[in-house]
Amino acid sequence: MNLIELLRKIKFVPLHMLFWGGVWLFYIYFFGFNSANQPYVIWFSNILVPVTIVTTYFVIYFLIPNYLLKKKHWYFLLYGIYTLIASAYLITISMFLGFMFKTELNTDLMPPLSKSLPFILIGVYLVVALVSAFKLLRHNYESIERNKSLENKILEAQLQIKNQELQYLKKQIHPHFLFNTLNTIYGFALKQSKSTPLIILKLSNLLDYILYQIEKPKVSLKEEVLHIEEYIELEKMRFQDSLKVNFKSQPIPDTIQVTPMLLIPFVENAFKHGQIIDGFLRVDVEIFLKNNSLNFSIKNTIRSTDEKKSIKGIGLDNIQKRLQLLYQDQYQLEIENQDHWFSVNLMVNNLNASIND
């Protein structure tokens, strides 16, 4: 037993003494009923209290922890019977000693209730039962508190793991996204295009969003859509006449929020893996809200249906993991590859309520 545990037990000694003092008074009142032999009642109570103390502490500190709480019910019953026999034996000796030395072998001088072993056992085990019940209630309360504390620790650990995984996924998105946009600037710089400053300006806006806004748990959906439009403008400059984009988006309220970089990786994936057919890369994007649900669809042209194995790169893998972490069962994601079109359809239900803050 360590020092802290010892001090904790010593702190309750006065409380135990007060309780056993109350038991002693109870015995005096109980066994003094219909009796004028007060000295005998006090003497008998003085003998009976230690027997009760030993029996009670044996039950609550040995039988209950070692057998009842460990669900060894047969052992608990067996040793409980042994305890009952031992306490009955000690009480019988006390009755016999009182009969010999306190009443001078005159049973008429003995208090009525002190003559009956069943009544005495009832008085003793009433105290034992009361203390045992308190012990079990306290044990249940402490178990509930420990379980709550353990559950809180598990939830905190899960939250930390979740946040770490989200940060890891975000960091994977950064270099992938920047690599493609910097390639666009590099190509225009080689051509000494007059559009290079405009591209750099649009990229700076995207960099601000990626490097700073992405650390926030939520951003405005309207802001996400604006950066999608900037990204598309950059790609139009890169593809020039070989790109056809059909972008549709209804007005979005400022109050609607999503996790940052939720939709941009889908757009990025479309331009990265999309292929030119008949002289054009075609990309169709549609974003709209309905009943507080986000509906997003994007599709791009591909030459062969065998490309499906290669187009699900870092972007789509990461976004699916993030969707599961952040929206869990509140989203539906469909990915299809047919008729030279690769399409992604995303629906996020109950939009604001499903985001984990």
Automatic annotation (TrEMBL):
Source organism, top-level taxon: Bacteria
UniProt keyword terms in alphabetical order: Kinase, Membrane, Transferase, Transmembrane, Transmembrane helix
Domain Signal transduction histidine kinase internal region: 165-243
Transmembrane segments: 12-30, 42-64, 76-97, 117-137
Coiled coil region boundaries: none
GO molecular function, one term: kinase activity
PANTHER family: SENSOR HISTIDINE KINASE YPDA (PTHR34220)
Annotated protein name in UniProt: Histidine kinase
Source organism: Paralabilibaculum antarcticum
